[in-house]
Inverse folding.
């Protein structure tokens, strides 16, 4: 089933709405809904905002609309998360890759976040070696180390800082097959 077919299914079968009523909720006239359901929308750039509006107004998961991946209905928590992600993406002008990284970061558990922060510290240290400004390089490392220290302070594990750093570094090395 294609996106336009899922929209027709949502409107007609799941919601039992006419094209006119469905369109009123979305601020689109009946012929606009008919064009969407027939997959003849004149301007393809109009589709994406409308797809997102359909998901928002009818509590439908975007993944279901795009791919058919069940479940169809979004939970209230998913609705809130999706709204927040859209707002952040709009404010910070995030593209699809940026959104993907942000979503991955937000869904990491504490251990995954610690590993990512350890990797970021290693990258900062490497980046610092490429600058001819020694003071700037030291500042990069210090800033990254300060962020890492703060993350360690928030991490709710019974480990010393050294054990935390060793664990994060070991997991990073293991994930990369031992290659540094």
């Amino acid at each position: 089933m294609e996106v336009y077919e899922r929209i027709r299914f949502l409107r007609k079968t799941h919601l039992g709405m006419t094209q006119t009523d469905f369109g009123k909720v979305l601020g689109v006239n009946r012929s606009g809904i008919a064009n969407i359901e027939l997959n003849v929308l004149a301007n393809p750039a109009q589709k994406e905002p409308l797809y997102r509006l359909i998901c928002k107004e009818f509590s439908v998961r975007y993944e279901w609309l795009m791919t058919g991946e069940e479940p169809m209905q979004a939970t209230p928590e998913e609705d809130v998360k999706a709204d927040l992600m859209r707002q952040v993406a709009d404010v910070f002008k995030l593209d699809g890759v940026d959104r993907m990284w942000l979503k991955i970061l937000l869904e990491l558990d504490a251990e995954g976040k610690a590993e990512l922060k350890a990797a970021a510290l290693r990258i900062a240290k490497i980046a610092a070696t490429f600058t001819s400004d020694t003071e700037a390089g030291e500042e990069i490392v210090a800033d990254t180390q300060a962020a890492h220290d703060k993350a360690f302070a928030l991490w709710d594990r019974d480990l010393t800082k050294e054990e935390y750093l060793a664990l994060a570094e070991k997991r990073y090395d293991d994930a990369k097959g031992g290659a540094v």
